Amino acid sequence: MNYDLVFFVITNMLLLLSTLIFYGYFHDEVLALLFSIFLSINNTLLFREIYNLDKRLIIYNIPYLIFSYYFVIMVLKIFLV
Questions:
Q1: How many domains does the chain have?
Q2: Taking the model in full, what pTM does it have?
Q3: Is 24:7 a contact under the CB 8 Å cutoff?
Q4: Structural domain span for residue 10
Q5: For every one of its 81 residues, what pLDDT tens digit does the chain have, with 9 covering 90 and above?
Q6: Number of neighbours of residue 69 by Cβ within 10 angstroms
Q7: Which has the closest alpha carbon to 72: 7, 10, 19?
Q8: Interatomic CA distance for residues 51 and 35, integer angstroms
């Protein structure tokens, strides 16, 4: 069992939950931006770890990458307006 992969999946879930809680429930855009940046970094590292493990499994990580970068852009647009 690859413990790095388990670590990335658990932290990915926690970062996603904290991003959605701070953005949706508390309406705190600064912390949501901070957690979404951490989430996108974690998803990129998770993508690399899955790529090193098995190249056929990276198709499952692509939606997480798209969502994390989309959410960073969406929260940044709030600051720019």
A1: 1
A2: 0.81
A3: no
A4: 3-80
A5: 678 888 888 898 898 888 888 888 888 888 888 988 999 999 999 899 889 888 888 898 888 889 889 988 988 888 787
A6: 15
A7: 19
A8: 24
